[in-house]
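tool_log.txt
---
The assistant was asked to compare two proteins side by side. It first ran the structure predictor on the initial sequence, then on the second. Raw inputs and outputs are pasted verbatim so the downstream comparison step can read them without reformatting.
(1)
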Amino acid sequence: MHECASYIDEYIEQRKKAGEEITDDSYLIRNEFNYAFPKQVKKPKPASIPGLNTLMNFILQKTGIRQVNHKTENSRYKGHEKAFYCAKPVPTKRES
């Protein structure tokens, strides 16, 4: 458990060095930011749920905990594409 706490402390220290003001109300996990853009650093936003899901899936795949079935992964996105391209256009008001 000590190892985990030291990584968290290191992460928070890195954010402080980047210019972020860390308080008791600061988000532990914040949105990504680029050190070159101080406004991003100084105005943290919480990480989004979809962003955290994507990150966790990436970590699980890279560590080998989750095996990727490319056929089902690709079909998941193809289904969204199909729904997008097959959707009926929304009727617009005709001007008389």
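(2)
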Amino acid sequence: MAAANVSRLTGAGINYILSTGGAAGTFSCGSDAGFASFINRWASPNLIGIDFDIEAGQSQTVISDLIRRTQAAHAGASRPAVQPDPGDAGQQQRSEHRAVARRRRRR
């Protein structure tokens, strides 16, 4: 699925956001290598962000791991450190997405 969709999106010059989780489920990844593999399936110059839709069922540790793994996956890019806010994890993710999107537009 990823290869076909990425090919179509990039072929059409469409920027996209990888969105996971939501009311119907949660997203987590148990290792840095697994997360990098997941991201690499969707990676292209048109990937402008990752949206972790955190509704319920994910602990602060899982959320922090996702943030850390996202930072590790983008280690080559200069970006500010992201610190999870236990009061509003969804807001933190939206802020992270906006920061990634701004950096991509500048390139």
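---
observation on (2): The first strand starts at residue 16 and ends at 21. The longest helix spans residues 89-106.
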